[in-house]
User: Fold LytR family transcriptional regulator from Streptomyces anatolicus.
Amino acid sequence: MRVATTCSVAVLAAAGIGHTVVTSLDTGIKRVDAFRDMKNRPASGNGMNVLLVGTDGRDKITPEDKQKYRLGGAPCHCTDTIMIVHISEDRDRASVVSLPRDSYADLPAHTDQNSGKKHRAHPNKINAAYAEGGPNLTVRTVEHMTKVKIDHYLEVDFTSFIKTVDVLGGVEICTAKPLKDSHTGLNLAVGTHAMNGGEALQYVRSRYVDGASDLGRMHRQQRFLAALIAKATSSGVLLNPVKFRDVTLTLLGSVRADKGFGTSDMLDLGRAMRGFSPSSSEFTTVPLSDRGQVLPGIGSTLKWHPEKSAKLFKALREDRPLAPHRVRSKHALVDVSPQQIRVQVDNGTGTPGLGRRVDAELRATGFRTTGLPADVPNAAKAPAPRTVVAYDPRWDRSAKSLATALPGCEMRRVDGLGATLKVVAGTDFKAVRPVRAEDELQGEFGVVTGDQVVCP
Assistant:
């Protein structure tokens, strides 16, 4: 939302709408004193760091929407989502790092905002920082843990989330497997879905669709942000001054931000980011250790991996990309990652070298081919007219992912074949279609870029 907002303000100013309208956007933002009396802060690095916090506030949501989107119950006044959004110095890249809400954290000494009681530094889950000390303690805790200086604070609750998505006209979310969560009411079939604000909120809140719990939810939140960026930069909203004004007034009128988040900052950043796109964004979660820690009276917490997390935050401070360099191409979405699928390729035609070509193309898109393609006996006399994927029914999901990479192929069930799937290349073979799994992570920090996680 920060990215979409800054880009939009720049377009509005360039369109000659006038300084008065731009200034009115500034006055519409609700302010919080997130940096009050902060001392011994980390040194400033290159680029800009925004702490994006999602809370469970729902005071202005109608009773009908509360029931429809399963938003009943009392809010805990804590943070559901904590992300560091790093905007590069050249304004060509946004790096988003999710901090699990159950992360083990050392909260600095503070005065409890509810009871007024003074607390010494003590361990807790990171999302408790907001409940005990609001935005100020949240910023202090994140800076203490990451050694990354936070430049701005932006807070979104359930109400502002729904309004922002709706005023943009909704977002498009796709999934390669069914997603169902009885707690939030989420129920998505395989495929692409146009979501309004309430439906998108169900999507990003769901924790019980699989065994990944909060980590899976963070991945869905990252995919949502990529979809939001894609919608804001491709829908024409940023180029329509009147529509932009409506979007921006809605967005800024329903969030809370630090006092330094002003019009001039938005204009300067927005002018530099006119060419921003989903491929300019990258998403990851702070690396975790294999074992967490149990805190008495609090429960299990997630421990950050000391070396990997330190390296990640050092990259943010030094304004370096987190994702490895890659050649971008259009990938079809599949349920099982090709890196998990072992394949034997056979040449079912008399065409010399076809088996080696199919093997190489499948390996290039990630499949674990044997590298030893064989020739089907008598194929030159009776070539296979159609490419076949032979599979053991116990590995049917893997077979469907492999078949997606071979458009038009025939799927042939072979009981007892085992875990290695077989491809018999036929005369109809043209090329392997690149595929990827929606949760496939890349590089040292497990990063995905925005164009990898939006709908293909």
Observations:
- The first helix runs from residue 2 to 14.
- The chain has 13 helices and 26 strands.
